[in-house]
Input
Amino acid sequence: MSGVYGFLFQVYPYVCFVVFIVGSLIRFDQNQYTWKSDSSQMLRAGTLRWGSNLFHFGILFLFFGHLVGLFTPHSVYGVFMSAATKQMLAVAAGGIAGLVCFVGLTLLLYRRVFDARIRLTSHPTDIAVLVVLWVQLVVGLITLPYSWQHADGSVMLVLADWAQRIVTLRPVDATALASLPWPFLFHVVFGMTIFLLLPFSRLVHVWSGFGTVFFLFRPHQVVRSRRLNLPAGHDRPRQRVEPLETPR
Output
């Protein structure tokens, strides 16, 4: 069993990272026309509007929350916040965002599966991606009671130490994670698997979402009129001349 934990928590993270980066680059270079989210808004917009907004709000909050929570060293936030306080804050904020995301994702999945028009125009991977995200989200919500039971922050410290060691290429003790409850282990491994599958699914549009930030720093677009070189008075639309009525 130690060999399985060694692969999942020492080798598998790097496999997922390499496939995530290299696969995304190859797809962008070879298949740019598939780099899209394949929106079905034209078929049915009502449920999509609610589901998409709730899902994206929740998933972005959860993503950056996990990012900050896992990769911020204890020495940074330990000055003004204990590990127990941080874990309770993560449980409360993550629970609210998780429920919001769950409602939105469930609406999107229901729409894909039970709306005949959308199901017929959906690719099998569209439904598979929603199912994978739904399972990952449900397991993440299941971890909340376990986190509440370990209110001292010990579980969070173990996971954060593992994540920071992976990123900084330091040795990892995989057996330290073996003592954690199964929802945490499943959530971590399944989360890494999502990054492994991302270059081969519609989730690749996540890159474009973060890429839109660079539009804030791009130069202004210069728009020139085609009528700049015309004489004065000739750059206006022609007025319609009404025909004169002939007397009877």
